Amino acid sequence: MFESLRPHLVDPIRSEALASLVQQLQKRTTPTNVAQVRQLSPFRYPGGKTWLVPEVRKWLVTAKHPPSVFVEPFAGGAMAGLTAAAEGLAEKVFLCELDADVAAVWATIFHGTDTDVRWLCERITGFEVNLDSVQLVLGINPKSDKGKAFRTIVKNRMQRGGIMAVGAGLIKSGEAGRGLHSRWYPETLVKRIEALRTLRDKITFKQGDAFAVVKRFANDPNAFFYIDPPYTAGGKQAGTRLYAHNDVDHEKLFALMATVRGSVMMSYDESLEVRKMARQYSFRVVPVPMKNTHHEIIRELLIMKP
Prior knowledge:
Number of strands: 7
CATH architecture of the largest domain: 3-Layer(aba) Sandwich
Shape: globular
Strand content: 5-15%
Strand order of the largest sheet: 3-2-1-4-5-7-6
CATH class of the largest domain: Alpha Beta
Oligomer: single chain
């Protein structure tokens, strides 16, 4: 399938480090307290990986040297990549996202001009939240990245659960009956954007296809890949409901990740089909506890290779 990519010899040091990490993860019985995790992303993203940040951190520090690049091809809210950059856990971070609206936010923050970022922050702090103003913003189609970025942030914060797929409705009662104001924290959003802006020399963002980005770094033995695709494998429907771009060939994705020379961590919903693909391509699988949006403790799969 991927003729230009060859299976690689496993680094014994990385293999031993991964085995140690797996042992630590297997002992986990309680979910991460996400309130104790530093929030970096301006997105309130469905399926966000704030709960996974401590595991990503542990994984990255298993490297003998900091990874040459941390690659997050399905960026979304990008908590893993942002953490790697903010904490100096990788020399460089490469984020990729196919969705044009989400991409506009990252493109503005990391590759826009200072004027663009200042404009975005001023629009956020000056925005008066009410039904008419929200519907007006969501009803326009800006041509500039900064305009799309503002509309995307409003949409993400005003639509139920942060869902931005077609058909998602606006927040109704919200937290403590605050309605549309429930998730609109302008000063906090601006602080996050300004903090991320300071990381622009460490982070490269590209709108595009995740598979192409993986192939770009596939022959770098010091690259670390974090793969968090829409959850549509094993008959799961969450990815279909939550994301505008949700059509992923999971079999092809596993086959590709098995051939890269760098380290890989993938996160998936628990399913027999996913476990079967992981076994087929010789990945280590560890179920890790986390809390879903209903505050129920469930387990997601971390799928790894050194």
